[in-house]
Amino acid sequence: MSGKEIEVVQNIHDENDRIAQEVNKKLNDAGVFVINVMGAPGAGKTSSIISIIQNNPDKQFYVIEGDIESDIDAVKLQELGIDTIQINTNGACHLDAPVIQSSLQGLKIDKPGILFIENIGNLVCPAEFQIGEHIKMLICSAAEGSDKPYKYPLAFEKADLILLTKCDLKEFVDFDDDFFYKGIRALNKTTPIFEVNAKNGQGFGEVTAWLKENNLT
Amino acid sequence: MSGKEIEVVQNIHDENDRIAQEVNKKLNDAGVFVINVMGAPGAGKTSSIISIIQNNPDKQFYVIEGDIESDIDAVKLQELGIDTIQINTNGACHLDAPVIQSSLQGLKIDKPGILFIENIGNLVCPAEFQIGEHIKMLICSAAEGSDKPYKYPLAFEKADLILLTKCDLKEFVDFDDDFFYKGIRALNKTTPIFEVNAKNGQGFGEVTAWLKENNLT
Q1: What CATH number has the domain bearing residue A64?
Q2: What is the number of structural domains in chain B?
Q3: Inter-axis angle of helices B3-29 and A3-29, to 10 degrees?
Q4: Which residues pair with B140 in a beta bridge?
């Protein structure tokens, strides 16, 4: 990149981070804890959000559903009675803080709770942008294979919570547990990792227990 | 984006397309047909490349392996005796034409054949950048679910050839064939779609037949 291009990119990041802090303060003051949900296409982000919500029926949840196009996931959540709004980025590969700031006008927040922001399905770009979150939750499917921490290190390095989804598929893809965990621990020594399966609810009790221990539900 | 930012982005795209044409001309003149292999993380891009190569033992193949970090896939290909070089983008979310132009110096092309360029695992950004290819081959795993054409339309719209991989996992993810095919055909009426499984070779005979019909192998 030329000097001018680098300067423009830096300006975009600085402005994004400033707005992310504003978004976080506003939601934090309203008693809302914000979870940025990241993962590759088809990793199981929406299914994981639904499973966590259904494990905590007494808690207030909100969802901002980010997609390039379509409202498939937002409709699914709304049909379950979950307060959800849809953002379509029309091509953009990640959510950013200005987009979240604008979208908050459409979300009626009347009591404390947890806001899941489901980012665009992309294991690369979303990890580079703050969007006002308290924590980043990374969703990685067993079907993607055990080498993902080595190939997409930033997302694993920055994750505060990791869910390995579709664990029932491990045996069909020769998933190597040792290789996967070793790859994550080289980047991120402490982040909790939970193995889950949204089809039968496996592992979501442990995720709920972790959220409770951290006073989030 | 501001006017200045839009101008910079447009300049980057124009310059990229100019270099992509140069790369394509150089390789075309050498009798090399270039396939840009795109798909999400863990879709099975490398396994599909290996299966196609092993189905065509008499043909010359070259591979440029694009990853953010690591050389796991390049080593796998080299161990099979396939002429492969590795590009690490160190964070960048897609390959671009200048990167390919530079990397060609490291690839010894001494006879006509097919060059696979495996793009970064990302179903969004690579679709926006020409890298000198003759065709784009999209790899989509059944484990990702059948709604991908609706959520990531650009990649499906631009694909010249689509492989639905890991078809043995369809039954475990309630894959909806009709929904998947309908979604693709709304974007792309004619692109051939092959259902494959790299573990047992299923479907790669049909891919090879298609390549032969098009005088590529």
Answers
A1: 3.40.50.300
A2: 1
A3: 130
A4: B164
All residues at 6 or more sequence positions from B208 whose CB lies less than 8 Å from its CB, including other chains: B52, B55, B56, B217
- Interval A72-129: pLDDT, tens: 999 999 999 999 999 999 999 999 999 999 999 999 999 999 999 999 999 999 999 9
How large is the ipTM?
Answer: 0.93
Does residue B42 come out as left (phi exceeding 0), alpha (psi in the -120 to 50 range) or beta?
left
User: Best of B122, B146, B156, B171 to disrupt the A interface by mutation (most A CBs within 10 Å)?
Assistant: B122
Please answer whether residues A163 and A139 qualify as being in contact, where contact means their C-beta atoms are separated by less than 8 angstroms: yes
CA distances A30 to A23, A24, A34, A129, Å, are: 11, 10, 11, 23
Query: Containing domain of residue B52, as a range?
Result: 3-213
Given the DSSP bridges, would you call strands B32-39 and B61-67 parallel, antiparallel or unpaired? unpaired
Interface test with A, best of B93, B128, B179 (most A CBs within 10 A): B93
Q: What is the pTM of this model?
A: 0.95
Bridge partner list, A183: none
CA distance B28 to chain A (A): 28
Neighbours of A40 (CB within 10 A): 29
Contacts A8 to B, Cβ<8 Å: 4-5, 8
Over residues B47-104, the pLDDT tens digits come to 999 999 999 999 999 999 999 999 999 999 999 999 999 999 999 999 999 999 999 9
